[in-house]
Amino acid sequence: MAGFLAGCTEDSTFTVPGNAVVSGNFTKATFLQLVTPVMEHSGGTFREDLLDVFANDEHGLLLLHHSFTKGGVLREYRTAHIVELRDGLIAKWTEHPGSMQEFENAWSTV
């Protein structure tokens, strides 16, 4: 995490939409409050596979496939991470699931 956070501005923000256990608004200082439930809920099986990336000096778009196993069931969905860059660092990061229903079903506690 330290390497990733080193690539972020001090005032960077991270937004995950919806009502899932991983949803919320986070800062660089509270980023671990996002990562911890991801690892706990997925039992450490969470994978983020990069499908494509587009970027210039001001913005970036990552197309991703997220997957993890919970209770012996594979859960997966496609998502996009849109980032705003400042001085070569991530200033704002927002997740945009391709399907909110798939995203929230994957992270449901049931």
How does the SSE layout of this entry go?
Blueprint lengths: L1 H5 L1 E9 L7 E4 L4 H11 L4 E9 L3 E12 L2 E14 L2 E9 L2 H7 L4
Parallel strand pairs: 1-6
Antiparallel strand pairs: 1-2, 3-4, 4-5, 5-6
Structural features, described:
- Strand 4 (59-70) and strand 5 (73-86) form a beta hairpin.
- The protein is 21% helix and 52% strand.
- By secondary structure, the chain is an alpha+beta fold.
- The mean pLDDT is 94.
- The chain starts with a helix and ends with a helix.
- It has helices at 2-6, 32-42, 100-106; strands at 8-16, 24-27, 47-55, 59-70, 73-86, 89-97.
- The longest helix is centred in the middle third of the chain and has 11 residues, at 32-42.
- The chain has a single domain (2-106), classed as Roll (Nuclear Transport Factor 2, Chain: A), CATH 3.10.450.50.
- The chain is globular and about 45 Å long.
- Strands 2-1-6-5-4-3 form a 6-stranded mixed beta sheet.
